[in-house]
Recover the amino acids of this structure.
């Protein structure tokens, strides 16, 4: 624990007076799992200089409602119906990055970009990667798709290295929905196209389509469809669920495009294959 306390002191003392305040909620709660050690909670920045008297057990769930800097999460804790907020070390939460979290939550609140030609929800951009040739960028893109979607053969619909083009059709899971007969996730399908040239590439992420748990299980009574629809009839959970599906899709779009940019960026240090 001594290492944790030193980290806490360093983080808050170096962030300055902007964080010398009680934590507050910035976003709606999202649940993350606590790692292998108990999660220390601090009501004030100065509390991080001492051993925490409030913790969440290892392996339990924590509701994150914000973040501070690169090292801290803001946790919401309910006690007898009353909400309390605490700072907690981000490193103690599984799969939580304050920087990525901020980007995801910001994206969730923004409107979908709409392509002027197709009128479909579309995320697209041209990214410069100076000094990296077309073949190397293509290899990075293919490897990223294989790792991101777990199965390149199932996802990649077209791969043409000479033309510098990759087309993948994937799906991301929408958190659990409850039906009369089952509890299962729904999915949002999408198409990701990459155009690759020397020193740059273009990504186009579009064709978002919701597939509910009932359809995924082979029940024809389930309702889904393109996300451009306004609350299609028959979606379990109605308008509230449809809004949630769209928000989750915007979060996932940010995560996908951020991961792609990281994978395609100039490499620092020695490449693992160079030995």
């Amino acid at each position: 624990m001594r290492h944790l306390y030193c980290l806490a002191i360093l983080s808050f003392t170096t962030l300055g007076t902007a964080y010398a305040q009680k934590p507050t909620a910035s976003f709606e709660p999202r649940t993350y799992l606590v790692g292998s050690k108990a999660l220390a909670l601090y009501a004030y920045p100065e509390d991080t200089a001492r051993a925490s008297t409030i913790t969440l057990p290892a392996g339990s769930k924590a509701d994150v409602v914000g973040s501070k800097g690169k090292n801290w999460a803001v946790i919401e804790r309910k006690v007898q119906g009353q909400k309390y907020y605490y700072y907690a070390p981000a490193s103690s939460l599984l799969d939580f990055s304050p920087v990525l979290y901020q980007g995801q939550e910001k994206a969730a609140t923004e409107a979908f970009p709409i392509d002027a030609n197709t009128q479909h929800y579309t995320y697209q951009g041209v990214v410069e990667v100076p000094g990296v040739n077309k073949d190397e960028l293509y290899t990075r893109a293919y490897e990223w798709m294989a790792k991101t979607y777990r199965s390149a053969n199932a996802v990649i619909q077209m791969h043409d290295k000479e033309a510098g083009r990759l087309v993948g059709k994937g799906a991301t899971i929408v958190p659990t929905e409850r039906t009369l007969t089952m509890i299962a996730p729904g999915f949002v399908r999408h198409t990701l196209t990459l155009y690759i040239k020397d020193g740059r590439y273009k990504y186009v992420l579009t064709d978002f389509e919701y597939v509910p748990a009932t359809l995924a299980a082979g029940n024809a009574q389930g309702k889904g469809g393109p996300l451009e629809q306004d609350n299609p009839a028959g979606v379990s959970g109605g308008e509230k669920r449809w809004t949630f599906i769209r928000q989750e899709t915007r979060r996932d779009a940010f995560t996908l495009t951020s991961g792609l940019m990281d994978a395609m960026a100039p490499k620092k240090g020695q490449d693992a294959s160079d030995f």
